[in-house]
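User: Run a structure prediction on this.
Assistant: Running it now.
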Amino acid sequence: MNEFVLHPRITDNSDWVTLVFLICFAIIAMTKSIYENRFGDFANLLFSDKYIKVYRESGNLKNGFTIALFFVQIISLTFFIQLSMHIYGLRDKADWMQYIQIANFLLFFIFSKVLIEKIIATSFHIEEFVEQFNHQKVTYRTYIGIILLPIDMLFYYYENINTMFPTIIIVVVIVANLVTYVFSVKNYQNLIFGKLFYFILYLCALEIAPYYFIYYWITKGVA
């Protein structure tokens, strides 16, 4: 009589992560192919501000190039948050439900912020300033998001990551954002000084308070 021994089938729930990484690189490759010159200027953003000066028209925040790289940025930032929380011992790095929750939170946060910005800009008649200011911020943050993508892969596929590394990267990202603010203020100082009160209101309401809320959300483990 034959005896059958049943073994549990081990499935790897991390396959979706590899697929998402591949999708990101496919989007980047397609974007580079379609917008070759623009992508070249964007890739040199760290060494030249040509991209900021050339593509500053209002429609550039809504075209295919910006939307495609924004999608990659959301994926990258979401992975970075989840993987950092995993390294700190707070979450599972391959939990796709948690990944979706973080991505939804980021999208809700960004779109809510954009909506409030438009309301404030229209109310105080500073639409031009807010649009140009946002263009520069979005460009640099998208650039940072793409740079984080290979770091995300390292954090995911390499097991023993010291908590020092995500901490250093977080500090570098914060400093990089502060530097972009300095450049933005310098580039648009004439507009800012002409509407200084509105700029201070904009800064406090939309550039300080929301990030404090994110810090509180992450540190308290609300997600």
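DSSP finds nine helices and no strands in the chain.
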